[in-house]
Design goal:
This protein is about 30% helix and about 15% strand. It is of the alpha+beta class. The model has no long low-confidence stretch (mean pLDDT about 90). The strands form four sheets. A two-stranded antiparallel ribbon has the order 1-6. A two-stranded antiparallel sheet has the order 2-3. The longest helix is centred in the first third of the chain and has 28 residues.
């Protein structure tokens, strides 16, 4: 799902609310698609957007939706460790359906969406992007996510906002 462009200009509560509503909608669509596929006698399971848990200081999920999206040809993982699409930029959020139905894959995206300007690296309050070969999930999550009254709240999206390609290549 593409998040609205103005989400980057919102306060913490509004940004979180918009993202959480998008997640609910996407997860319902994925569940509906999986049910439809099962009705057609295919094996299918939906992978919800916010699934996973912390293991040994790292967030682990059954499927890395970002990496799956890259392998599905939906974009390229940029220096800010966000999947970025040439048309929609990094304002993407993912869910998935894993199925036994044979599908023809799209080609991998071959365009460049990052010029290594390092704005994201320089502005990251957690230092999560400092090592180009090792994104610090734990550091990022420590600064960016907190739980308020049982609801996950996002506190930082500087890497998303500062990116020159946040709205796509032609931004």
């Amino acid at each position: 799902m593409v998040l609205p462009k103005d989400i980057l200009e919102q306060d913490i509560r509004t940004y979180t609310d918009i993202r959480n509503e998008a997640v609910k909608k996407m997860d319902k669509v994925a569940a509906d698609v999986a049910a439809e596929l099962k009705g057609l006698k295919h094996k299918a399971v939906s992978i919800v957007s916010l699934s996973g848990k912390f293991v040994d200081g790292h967030f682990r999920s059954r499927v890395s939706l970002k990496h799956a999206a890259e392998l599905a040809g939906l974009g390229v993982i940029a220096r800010n460790y966000l999947l970025t699409n040439n048309k929609y930029g990094n304002l993407l959020w993912f869910t998935a359906v894993v199925t036994s139905l044979e599908l023809e894959p799209d080609p991998l995206a071959t365009y460049q969406v990052c010029n290594n300007c390092n704005l994201c690296v320089d502005l990251c309050p957690s230092g999560a992007l400092t090592d180009e070969n090792n994104f610090s999930q734990k550091g990022c999550r420590k600064v960016c996510y907190i739980t308020v009254k049982g609801v996950l709240e996002l506190r930082c999206w500087q890497c998303r906002n500062v990116c020159p390609y946040k709205h796509g290549i032609n931004d």
